Known about the structure:
The protein is α/β, with parallel strands linked by helices. The protein has helices spanning about 20-35, 40-50, 55-65, 70-80, 80-95, 100-105, 125, 130-155, 165-170, 175-185, 190-205, 220-230, 245-250, 270-280, 340-345, 370-375, 380-395, 410-420, and strands at about 5-10, 35-40, 160, 165, 210, 235-240, 265, 290-295, 300-305, 350, 355, 375, 400, 425-430.
Amino acid sequence: MSQAKLLLITPPFTQLNTPYPATTYIKGYLNTLGIPSFQADLGIEVILHLFSKEGLKQIFAQAKKQRNLSNNALRIIILEHSYVQIIEEVITFLQHKNPTLAFTICERSFLPEASRFEQIDDLEWSFGTIGVQDKAKYLATLYLEDLGDLISEAVDPYFGFSRYAERLGMSASSYDTLHSKLQEPVTLIDTITLELLDVLIQKEGPTLICFSIPFPGNLYSALRCGQFVKRNYPKIKIAMGGGYPNTELRSLSDPRVFEVLDFISLDDGERPLRNIIEHLAGKKSIEQLKRTFCLVNQKVQYVNGSTDVDISFHKTGTPDYSDLLLNDYLSVIEVTNSMHRLWSDGRWNKLTMAHGCYWKKCSFCDISLDYIKNYEPISATILCDRMETLINQTGVSGFHFVDEAAPPSIMKELALELIKRKDECDLVDQYSV
Ligand code: SF4
């Protein structure tokens, strides 16, 4: 097993402000086994390339070739120089690296403005007279959104800041559309993604690349990456898992999917991934995989012959945020309603208090799914230990608990444990109900 080297990838796009935590969990578990891995959020890396001087020049060059553009797109193109000139300053401001730029932004003569700025209501009401940082963040977000509008109108209709080609992922009941799209030439976003992936592969030399697919807006990019790896690095194996396969790919039957990857695992990833690694090391037969789709004799098979039990939640290790570009995420304010800020503003350490849901009674919920029905809390002591490790690793003391339904009894125990340890953490609870 020691020869395996894993590359864990979140493909474009999820959130701008913070990494999606799935690969941090898997990396934390691999640490407990002593298996080396490297993780990357290609989403933020592609965004930073796209919204750089060089990236914008490529966007404008493509946009200018289009005909029949809207007045809004034409306005942005006319203002090209203004957009390109300040892009890197705006990005560093949104990364909290140049806070004094806020005063200049708020003067309203620094950022070029197109249609997104028409939605501005009463800035005074939203930000008061001293909320300069937030007001500037909001204005800078509108500036990026104007550029996003240009990209989706004139360069790539599948672009979105937190999703890519989501429509293709949502229609995955048939693989036909995705398959046809994969036969088309690569897009600008594909090109950037694949160049970044290539650098990672050459630097890290992985034997197995794992794609985490939380949402339909991550699927197409993962498949495009898989296609690239199969063509250029045929010895590397490719696996996929995450929330999207867990809910949408349970009846997978199209063998063409396995032209671009080798394994798709369902539900908790730790044990299936361990069995895949052992299988690739020749220590397990293909029949001993766990909850994994793969191709056997050119037919899609769901293999679940392993008798190994799943890894208990308290043995999965502490999520590991190393390798990620933690200081480069962007804090944006898309709407002035402060309730939305948790999803777009600031970087949070994400944790869960329990595996599964303690409640399991909502009539609209599919409680047969593993990640809901198998409830397993961990003790407040382990939770606090994990929080301390994460604070030390990331320098961030804000925690966002992303449980299906955070159990009140654990919340109380955790609060008491925190008081006992005299920790200073900003706790935010998030319920999915
Ligand atoms: S609380 Fe959430 S996870 Fe639990 S049963 Fe209700 S909807 Fe499902």
